[in-house]
Design brief:
234 residues; four-stranded antiparallel sheet
C-alpha cells in the first residue's frame, strides 16, 4: 500500500471517530508517530487510540481493556472492521461476558446489532496467541443453533434410565463442536441432574453456545426420564 493511501486511510479513520457524538479527540505529533487519542462522555464507553508510525507507513489501533492490544496495517490490508469496533467502544455499545469453554472474561462490541467478542487484557494469556482476530459470529443463526441442539439431543433420548444414573454417579459430561451450514462453530454440552430426587426422575440437559448466538444466555433443551424409562411431561 502506498504512503499516500495509508495517510488518507489514517485521516479518514480519525475523522470517522471524531464525528461520533460525545467523543473528544486529542492530537499529538511525536518524533516517530502521529497519535489521535479518543475519549467519550457516552456511558460504558472505552478509550481508543489511533496511531500512525514511521510517517504513517503503518496504522495502529488500540481499544482500552482488550487483550488484543492492537491491530495494524502490517497484518491487515485495512482496519475497516476494527474501526467499527472502535466506534462501538466510543459509543458505549460494550458489554462483558465469559468465553463458552474456559469461561475467561471477554469484552464484546455491538456492531450492526451483532456482538463481537474478544478476551480482556486481564485474562492472563498473551494477546498474540489468543486473539485470533475478533470472532465475527452472528446472532441471526439462532434457528440453526436450535435445530442442531434438538437433533443432537434426540440422539440421546434412547439412553436408558440406568445409563443416566451412571452419568450422574460419574458426573459424566459430553462436550464437542459442530459446524453449522452457516459456517459458525457451535459448542455443545450434555449432562444430567436430578430433576426430582424423591421421584427419582433424571433430567438430561443439552446446551449450545454459538458465539453471539448465545454469548450471554446459552440455548438449552432437556428431557426427563422416570425409573420405568418413560418420559416425564410428554
Amino acid at each position: 500500500m502506498s504512503l499516500s493511501n495509508v495517510n488518507t486511510m489514517f485521516q479518514q479513520y480519525a475523522d470517522m471517530l471524531k464525528a461520533i457524538p460525545g467523543v473528544a479527540s486529542k492530537f499529538q505529533e511525536k518524533e516517530d508517530s502521529t497519535v489521535y487519542s479518543f475519549t467519550s462522555s457516552n456511558s460504558n464507553s472505552l478509550d481508543v487510540e489511533l496511531s500512525g508510525y514511521g510517517r504513517t507507513t503503518a496504522i495502529f489501533l488500540t481499544i482500552q481493556g482488550t487483550n488484543c492490544a492492537y491491530w495494524n496495517t502490517a497484518e491487515e490490508e485495512n482496519l475497516d472492521y476494527h474501526i467499527k469496533l472502535a466506534a462501538a467502544a466510543l459509543k458505549g455499545d460494550v458489554t462483558y461476558s465469559r468465553s463458552p469453554i474456559l469461561h475467561i472474561k471477554e469484552v464484546c462490541f455491538k456492531v450492526d446489532n451483532v456482538w463481537h467478542c474478544t478476551l480482556t487484557r486481564d485474562s492472563g494469556f498473551g494477546y498474540i496467541k489468543q486473539r485470533q482476530k475478533l470472532k465475527n459470529v452472528r446472532l441471526n443463526n439462532k434457528n440453526e443453533a436450535i435445530e442442531l441442539l434438538e437433533s443432537e439431543l434426540s440422539k440421546r433420548r434412547d439412553l436408558t434410565y440406568n445409563t443416566l444414573c451412571r452419568w450422574i454417579e460419574k458426573k459424566k459430561k459430553e462436550h464437542y463442536t459442530l459446524k453449522g451450514n452457516s459456517g459458525i462453530d457451535y459448542q455443545l454440552d450434555f449432562f444430567t441432574t436430578w430433576d426430582n430426587k424423591k421421584l427419582k426422575t433424571i433430567r438430561f440437559w443439552g446446551n449450545i453456545d454459538g458465539g453471539d448466538v448465545s454469548a450471554f444466555h446459552p440455548l438449552s433443551s432437556t428431557f426427563i426420564k422416570a425409573p420405568d424409562d418413560t418420559f416425564v411431561g410428554e
